[in-house]
Amino acid sequence: MSSSFVIACVGKPSAGKSSFLNAVTDATAKVGNFPFTTIEPNQGIAYYPVDCPCKKYNKSDRCKPRHGWCKDGKRFVPIKLLDVAGLVPGASEGKGLGNQFLDDLRHADVLIHVVDASGTTDSNGKETKGYDPIDDIQWLRSEVHSWIFNNLHKKWAGTVRRHLAVKATAVETLHAQLAGYGTSKDIVQRTMDKLKIKEGLGQWDDKQLENFVSGFLDERFPTIVALNKIDMPDADKGIASILRRYGNSGARGQPIKDGVRGDNIVLTSALGECFLRKMGQQKYIKYETGDDDFITKEDDPEDEYKLKSLDEKAKRRLENIRDLVLFRYGSSGVQDVIIRAVEVLGIVPVFPVKNLSNFGASADGASAAFQDCVLVRPGMTVREFAGKLHNQLIQNYLGAETVGNIQLGEDDVIVAGKNNIIKYDTSGLPAE
């Protein structure tokens, strides 16, 4: 049982995408099993932290997730991360790995764009000095826009003729044309509504089609920017340059620029996080992803964590990370990127149980508590979630309850903290 969401990690070559992927997918010994039947070579597992109800209901000692882990009431839920082939300007025309990159995006629900803030790589990912990354966000957006616009435009006349002949709605026709991009009718409808498009498709000119594609991209591929290499020399210049352009985008009264909201730009040091994790795994420091500091043997006079002594080279590097990243920005930023990528979709964590007294996975409540956590899209109803769990739940559905034996309507929308702990009542299904 798992979420079906996919985060795609994109960026030009040498922007730090590989380091970022290593930083967010290396869960080492914490978990050995994943809820996904197949993990392709270019896929990995990231972990999204949510508040686990085990702490609220004093079940922490019995909380044993089937997938991921729970620590001090914080649940780490696995989610797919897709490593997309490196992008260069002209990809929509087949340059670089062009089509491979763009085809990979079809499977993504949200994009993480890793941008090199240090100015040490040019637009093609080649080593340089003094490069201003201000246009890196814009040209990635431009490539994806061109990919979709060109595909629609070259068959637009035929699309309009068929649309008029069969008397389909504009949403139905556009959905049929965009189905290959992993979209839904809801996304197309939201795009039309937000753009307040009234004209029939037969009246659209190229500008109207371009505007529609831009709006569609905002809905279909929300983007989080991981502004990376923040601890490198001259990174401040790149950070300032990008924040000047995008810092207020999406704020009240301000338009979204190039598909990016200012609050979806996160400062990161992927290499710094990788080194902190490595030192933590080797017992040189005590550190957890998202922490604003680490503990060394010198910081632990009572030897609580049984840490090993550091050599001078490692000490210097750790102090640099502490000064330039952790103390300055509060964390390495990589976990914040995953959090923003999931939350921008409005995802709701749901905890299905078979016993509301002990929150167990069996009817008698004797088993571990809160074994499952499923991430679902906003607006999902109680009955729709039953179908997501198992088709037999729909066939044998009698009703549902939440904490306090409160009955839930089958059309009730699931809301975090309100009714996202659910027990289903069924007929004809044996109790476990």
Q: How would you explain this protein's 3D organization?
A:
The chain has 432 residues and is of the alpha/beta class. Among the domains are: 145-216, Orthogonal Bundle (Helicase, Ruva Protein, domain 3); 270-332, no CATH class; 347-426, Ubiquitin-like (UB roll), CATH 3.10.20.30. Helices cover 34% and strands 16% of the residues. The protein contains 14 helices and 14 strands. It has helices at 17-25, 53-56, 98-104, 136-153, 156-166, 170-178, 185-195, 206-220, 235-246, 270-281, 312-329, 334-343, 382-389, 391-395; strands spanning 6-10, 43-51, 69-71, 74-83, 110-116, 223-228, 265-267, 285-286, 295-296, 348-353, 374-376, 397-402, 406-408, 421-426. The strands form three sheets. Strands 1, 2, 3, 4, 5, 6 and 7 form a seven-stranded mixed β-sheet that branches. Strands 11-10-14-12-13 form a five-stranded mixed β-sheet. The radius of gyration is 24 Å and the shape is flat. The model is unreliable at 27-33 (pLDDT under 50).
